[in-house]
Amino acid sequence: MKSNYLVCYDIANQKRWRQVFKTLRGIGTHIQYSVFFCKLTWQELTELKGRLNGMINEKKDDIRIYPLPSAIKCVVLGKGDRVPEGVDIFL
User: Fold this and answer.
1) Distance between CA atoms of 75 and 17, rounded to whole angstroms?
2) Quick one: which of 51, 54, 63, 82 could link to 9 by a disulfide (CB 3.0–4.6 Å)?
3) Residues 6 or more apart from 62 whose CB is under 8 A from it?
4) What local confidence, expressed as pLDDT, does residue 3 receive?
5) pLDDT of 51-66, one tens digit each?
6) What are phi and psi of 41, to 5 degrees?
7) How far apart are CA 20 and CA 78, in angstroms?
8) Residue 89: CB partners within 8 Å, gap ≥ 6?
9) 14 vs 29: CA distance, rounded Å
10) Are 31 and 90 in contact (CB under 8 A)?
11) pTM metric for this prediction
12) Exposed (0-12), middle (13-18) or buried (19+): which is 17, by Cβ within 10 Å?
């Protein structure tokens, strides 16, 4: 069963940032500058954490993966043009 996750990152080096971005772009929906929405199984999440951990410098970079509820309700203010499928928007 797939669950929803918000993946946020702050990468100090441009090359590492690009690797992380390309990896997440192939997996999730890019919703803000360094934020992706991902629907993953437990196995996919475990594999993603391993891949990302191998790309970063643990002393300089920060990646956070937040589990989200299955029924997501989101408030979008401003230019919210990238809305993940299955997310309800409340204005």
Assistant:
1) 28
2) 63
3) 9, 10, 11
4) 93
5) 999 999 999 999 999 9
6) -80, 170
7) 26
8) 74, 75, 76, 80, 83
9) 21
10) no
11) 0.81
12) middle
